[in-house]
Amino acid sequence: MKLSAIRTALAELQLQPSKTLGQNFLHDQNLARWIVAQLDVHEGETLLEIGPGLGALTGAALDARAHLTVLEKDGRLAGFLRERFAGQARLRVEHQDALDFDVRTLWPDQPVKVFGNLPYYISTPLLFHFTSAASPVERAVFLLQRELAERVAAAGPGTKEYGILSVIVGRRWRVELLRVLPATVFLPEPKVDSALIRLVPRGRDELPACDAQTFERLVRAGFSQRRKQLRKLLVEWFPADTALSWPEAAAHAGFDETTRGEELDLRQWIALANLVRPVYPAAAQDFSGEKFDVVDEQDRVIGVEPRGVVHARDLRHRAIHLFVFNAAGELFLQKRSAWKDRHPGKWDSSAAGHLDSGEGYLEAARRELREELGLPLEVVASLDLEEVAALEARETTGWEFIRVYEARHEGPFHWPAAEIEWGGFFPTVVVARWISARPGDFAPGFLECWRLWQARKTA
Ligand code: SAM
């Protein structure tokens, strides 16, 4: 939008740009187009804009022939945008606080890209919100205050910009600072320069694997008091006089015992997380000891065979799936890790697994709650498990007789990273929409269980 058009629009709306809402409008059209081009949008993709204002970037994004949703907290601006872009079928203007936007609803709409000239007073929480593991965003382009942009993009220790933002965002995302913009391209002019950053997910093998939950807990604790040494801040994980004491950890990860958080690079943080909770990718593929009961078409035991033989020969065997719901009625789904031998990277039931030889269905369900979701024995023993469906063994179930159990738990869960990449609660309407839009995202066994579960609900 041109400067004159911005002035006219503000005058017509009788709107004084609000400092509290971080309103600084971009008035360089070429720059707006260039910023949107950094998203590399393809037809049919889903775009989400945070804080569209008067639509400087929105207009450029609409040219890209994608589906665009914009989230604007200021009702007058949302109203203005609805009028300005009336008749644009691919645009949805939402009058809402972007921090309240439920990123989980985006999974059915992938590929999703997000962008915005962010209001500076909540840029950091917005950044965390839209780049968290709960969000399926695969590319983000944000205009931030220059100092914040430099902190997110800081490559490693040794600079004053490097800190918790660089570490937490940097583990999952490759961050590039694309360009510094002078204050003069905005109306009103902010007091400081801005900078554009682009975030692209890191490749799977770019950094060593680690347990994401442990990593984040350690980093947040390690940066909680910037001046304090890590040995004091992380004493809970590295208690003195144990095999995992701080001097051992420091020696292993290759740093000095008196180090502070900002002195560790990303790989050293990952090494620390791996000392606390190691990830054994090989464990996800080692089935040497596993034996299953082989059953006939009536689910009667007729023998015992190693797992490999059962699968290779399509022998009938037994498994359970668990659907764990929270009080809001949302279903916990897990994303299978890339190391799984079957359906790697697919979304699956809250927990699922084969019955060991001699094990009962319910017994296996309780074991999986411990092994996959990390629930303590006494919690698992006290949970009500309701059998809600039973599937006959056939090709689509992988020749498994499956019993599906429902349970209620609020989490949080602590899963083994070698088996599960991530997990989260999803509203069932989102799951239904996601399955219908992208069935290939899910493990086939889960889809079978889901269909039965839904049929039972609507019966
Ligand atoms: N994108 C426009 C541009 O580049 O000209 C405006 C950018 S301005 C820096 C930030 C915009 O975010 C404003 O329109 C402001 O009203 C909006 N905003 C502020 N807080 C918000 C929030 N919590 N959720 C959504 N939008 C917000």
Task: Please give a structural write-up.
- The protein has helices at about 5-10, 30-35, 55-60, 75-85, 125-130, 145-155, 165-170, 210-220, 230-235, 245-255, 265-275, 305-310, 360-375, 375-380, 430-435, 445-459, and strands at about 25, 45-50, 65-70, 90-95, 110-115, 140-145, 175-180, 185, 195-200, 290-295, 300-305, 315-325, 330-335, 345-350, 350-355, 385-390, 400-410, 420-425.
- With about 450 residues, the protein is of the alpha/beta class.
- It folds into three domains: about 5-200, Vaccinia Virus protein VP39 (Rossmann fold); about 210-280, rRNA adenine dimethylase, C-terminal domain (Helicase, Ruva Protein, domain 3), CATH 1.10.8.100; about 280-459, Nucleoside Triphosphate Pyrophosphohydrolase.
- It has a seven-stranded mixed sheet with strand order 4-3-2-5-6-9-7, with helices on both faces.
- The protein starts with a helix and ends with a helix.
- The mean pLDDT is about 95.
- Bound molecules: S-adenosylmethionine.
- S-adenosylmethionine binds next to β1, α3 and β3.
- S-adenosylmethionine (SAM) binds near residues 21, 25, 51, 72 and 117.
Please indicate the percent range of residues in DSSP E strands (runs of 2 or more).
15-25%
Helical residue percent band: 25-40%
Give the distinct bound molecules.
Answer: S-adenosylmethionine
Distance between the termini: 54 Å
What class, by secondary structure content?
A: alpha/beta
**Domain unit count:** 3
Order of adjacent strands in the largest pleated sheet = 4-3-2-5-6-9-7
Shape: globular
Q: What is the fold named in CATH at topology level of the largest domain? A: Rossmann fold
Under CATH at level 1, the class of the largest domain stands as Alpha Beta
The strand count comes to 18
Q: Please, what is the average pLDDT?
A: 94
